[in-house]
Design brief:
The chain has 239 residues and is an alpha/beta fold. It contains ten helices and nine strands. It has a single domain, classed as Alpha-Beta Barrel (TIM Barrel), CATH 3.20.20. α3 runs parallel beside α5. One of its GO terms (molecular function) is carboxy-lyase activity.
């Protein structure tokens, strides 16, 4: 999946960091692709340590749903990733709706990137407010807003507060760089709504995990943030 890194080396890095389970995702953009089959090849090496997440091109809804179904039924994937910035399609665009219906059918969550994109593409499709209509239309769909939502962090927090089925995930942000309003939310009403993530290889899990201890979370809050919230959302069996 990543040039120069083997699955064995990745598992070794997980062991060194104290990471029990990692979720690997495909990537579909016009300029770059990591196929779902590439992800599945890694997952097959360590199915007890790795979980796959499907990524599809939403611009052809029938093909997208077929690929999601194949990823779930044949590859054993347990979630879907959609990337609004990659196609200029906000999260509430109706092209996604057949995918959301399929996720509800399978009982799997959908993860999306909220906030700006580092790529030189318009950031507006990543506004967290676009989760609002989908959360209302699909109350049984679990929605995870990845990347915290910066610079619209308050908007993302509002979505997680309003909707029981909306969560926030922190990939691509080091804990020391979490927005203060997010840290306050994590320490308080968001203790059950926030999931730790790294966006490896861009952020090293070991370093990020060391910084979590600086957030001032309770023992129970840290355990939920690092473990039990994600286990509940993604159906991960904990030892």
């Amino acid at each position: 999946m990543l040039a120069g890194t083997t699955v064995e080396e990745f598992i070794e890095s997980m062991d060194a960091s104290g990471v029990a389970v990692s979720i690997l995702t495909g990537l579909v953009e016009d300029s770059f692709t990591i196929s779902n089959d590439d992800v599945a090849q890694w997952v097959r090496h360590a199915p007890d340590r790795l979980q796959g997440r499907a990524c599809v091109d939403p611009r052809s809804p029938a093909l997208a749903v077929a690929e999601l179904r194949r990823s779930v039924e044949e590859l054993g994937f347990r979630s879907l990733q959609v990337l609004p910035y990659a196609f200029g399609l906000p999260f509430d665009d109706r092209l996604y709706y057949p995918l959301y219906s399929a996720c509800v059918e399978y009982g799997i969550p959908v993860v999306t990137q909220v906030g700006h994109t580092a790529s030189l593409l318009p950031s507006d499709p990543g506004r967290p407010i676009y989760l609002d209509r989908v959360a209302l239309d699909f109350p049984d769909l679990v929605i995870v807003g990845g990347h915290i939502g910066w610079p619209w962090t308050d908007e993302m927090i509002a979505m997680a507060l309003k909707h029981p089925n909306v969560y926030i995930e922190t990939s691509a942000h080091l804990p020391r760089r979490y927005p203060p309003t997010f840290v306050d939310f994590l320490r308080g009403p968001g203790a059950s709504k926030c999931l730790f993530g790294t966006d490896w290889p861009w952020i090293d899990p070991a370093g990020a995990l060391r910084q979590v201890s600086e957030l001032g979370l309770s023992v129970e809050g840290e355990e939920a943030f690092l473990s039990s919230n994600a286990a509940r959302v993604f159906g991960i069996s904990l030892p």
